[in-house]
Design goal:
Strands 3-2-1-4-5-10-11 form a seven-stranded mixed beta sheet, sandwiched between helices. A four-stranded parallel beta sheet has the order 7-8-6-9, sandwiched between helices. It is of the alpha/beta class. It contains eleven helices and eleven strands. The structure holds 6-O-phosphono-beta-D-fructofuranose (F6P).
Length: 345
């Protein structure tokens, strides 16, 4: 740990799947760095940029122009420095660039690497949880989640209109990997009749029975929101295999379920896989507000000489937690699962 007041130059990287709101975090970082007279450089394409020493200078004059822009101006990648054995390069680059600290913005994979590096190389690293999946433990909020939910809700409303007009059911597949945060929150917000998440068991035949009953009652168009990571059904129709971190690549359960329902009910139904639509688009106001604070807090922590921590938002306040906490996964909270059980069919 370094002494307070000695922070002169820091780096920042964005790793893993992008989301809308990352650029707002960068702006929060640059604004607080400006207050403290700290120079900021942004590594390009996640850990890849750190390994290769590829970066761009960042300033609040630059980030203010992209604060409402989705994606990340730094680029991202799923580079896993441990897998490709490039750890020494990271230490070398940080030393060569005279960096007093590094801010890693990303999900479980990026932050797990950050935590290991902080331990193995004694580097000053602060993590910021960023994933539309909202599944980083230790924090109630991850950068990108609110906008992903907003995008999914808009899409569900849009497709419901068509299904109502045509009197057909629609399956909407949302992202989230092994967690059902987007499915649960977006599904409830958009008034979906059925919501399926990996945290709860799924029975396709029971769904067919319930749909039959709905149709008999005259409700011919029902919205069925399903998380891509529900395991009890084929979720590899579009995507399969594993990424650099060993995560199963998911996609297609929506189409599989649509086919199943259609066959069993002998009635046309529709499906849409929202996929990357959820990760883009203008960030919500709540998103940008939260993200500015995530960025600002990370710089404050580094300036206080703190390291190996993650900025967490919990019980309504931003506070640091151990970075190693990010290594796990956080399922949807029990009270939200209860809402799914009670407020859907
Ligand atoms: O982790 C974010 C996420 O969007 C998941 O919801 C999804 O399963 C995965 O990334 C997709 O990853 P990729 O960008 O490699 O297609």
């Amino acid at each position: 740990m370094q002494k307070e007041g000695r922070t002169r130059k820091i780096g920042v990287l964005t790793g893993g799947g992008d989301s809308s709101g990352i650029n707002a975090v960068l702006h929060g970082i640059c604004l607080e760095a400006r207050n403290k007279g700290i120079e900021v450089i942004g590594f390009l394409d996640g850990w890849h940029g750190v390994i290769e020493g590829k970066f761009m200078p960042l300033s609040s004059e630059k980030t203010v122009t992209v604060v409402n822009q989705s994606g990340t101006i730094l680029g991202t990648s799923r580079t896993n420095p441990y897998k490709i054995k490039k750890i020494a390069e990271i230490k070398k680059q940080m030393k060569g660039l005279n960096l007093d600290g590094l801010i890693a913005i990303g999900g479980n994979d990026t932050l797990t690497v950050a935590s290991r590096l902080a331990d193995d190389l004694q580097l000053n690293i602060i993590g910021i949880p960023q994933t539309i999946d909202n599944d980083v433990p230790g924090t109630d909020y991850c950068v990108g989640f609110d906008t992903a939910v907003k995008n999914a809700v808009e899409a569900i409303h849009n497709v419901r209109a068509t299904c109502n007009s045509h009197k057909e059911d629609i399956v909407v597949e949302v992202m989230g990997r092994d967690s059902g945060w987007i499915a649960a929150v977006a599904g409830l917000t958009a008034g979906a009749e059925f919501i399926f998440v990996p945290e709860l068991s799924f029975d396709a035949d029971l769904l067919v029975e319930k749909l039959k009953l709905r149709h008999e009652q005259g409700f011919l168009s029902n919205v069925i929101v399903i998380a891509e990571g529900v395991r009890e059904f084929d979720h590899t129709k579009i995507d399969s295999g594993v990424d650099a971190f060993g995560n199963a690549m998911l996609g297609g359960i929506g189409f599989s379920l649509r086919d199943y329902i259609q066959t069993k009910l002998n009635k046309k139904s529709r499906a849409i896989v929202l996929s990357y639509i959820q990760r883009g688009g203008m960030p919500s106001s709540y998103e940008v507000f939260m993200d500015l604070k995530f960025g600002q807090t990370a710089v404050k922590l580094l300036a206080q000489g703190k390291s190996n921590l993650m900025v967490a938002y919990s019980s309504g306040i931003f506070q640091p937690v151990k970075l190693s906490l990010a290594c796990g996964k956080q399922p949807v909270k029990a009270e939200i699962l209860q809402m799914v059980k009670e407020l859907t069919l």
